[in-house]
Amino acid sequence: MTQAPITVLIADDQDLVRTGFAMVVDAADDMRVVATAADGAEAVALTARHRPDVVLMDIRMPRTDGITATRAILATAHPPKIVALTTYDSDDYATRILNAGAHGYLLKDATAEGLTAAIRTVHQGGSVLAPSTTRRLVAQTGTARTEPAPAAPTLATLTARERAVFDLIVAGASNTEIAQRLHLAEVTVKTHVGRVLAKLGVRDRVNIVVWAYRNGAVLTGEP
């Protein structure tokens, strides 16, 4: 049985950008564009109409900006995953749209492969952050290191299985990948993810990654 393609809505106020992203998405065998929007208000309306799996959301748009549109979309009964796509490599924008509930934050200079991989990752329950944003988190907090850091007190509240799930989330694994790595049912992984979120006091998987960097729970792998 053929799996249904991942449906995508693209919101951007520049026609050429929408067209370019649409060509990239439609070129992938496992996804298709169902609608495009020229501003945040239109994105909200078209999301309600087409119910896409993933929305690629620009941040600076006329009428309704991407942050406001993200909040409105995620407040609906069956919200899609949202990936912010912006020209502006800004910590302020990243923080604001992630706090609004976006599942990822990428720059528009991402490669075609990087964009489609990000869509698949968030669709499967993962999260994505622009490499430059991640590097600044490291630089600003000074917490990523090449040797294990003293665990933040909150990490001690995680069980061994929850800590394993936490580590794989930070590494960018989706629920499906975590299930395969830990030999668990995917529904069990979802339960563990929920417990990790509750114990860390964060809203979603992206904020687990941010929390990990801010609390010294990430290894860079090299100096």
Automatic annotation (TrEMBL):
Residues 151-216 form the HTH luxR-type domain. InterPro entries: CheY-like_superfamily, NreC/VraR/RcsB-like_REC, Sig_transdc_resp-reg_C-effctor, Sig_transdc_resp-reg_receiver, Tscrpt_reg_LuxR_C, WalR-like. GO terms for molecular function: DNA binding. Keywords: DNA-binding, Phosphoprotein, Transcription, Transcription regulation. One of its GO terms (biological process) is regulation of DNA-templated transcription. Residues 7-123 form the Response regulatory domain. It comes from the Bacteria. The modification 4-aspartylphosphate is found at D58. PANTHER family: TRANSCRIPTIONAL REGULATORY PROTEIN NARL-RELATED (PTHR43214:SF24), TWO-COMPONENT RESPONSE REGULATOR (PTHR43214). This is Two component transcriptional regulator, LuxR family. It comes from Micromonospora yangpuensis.
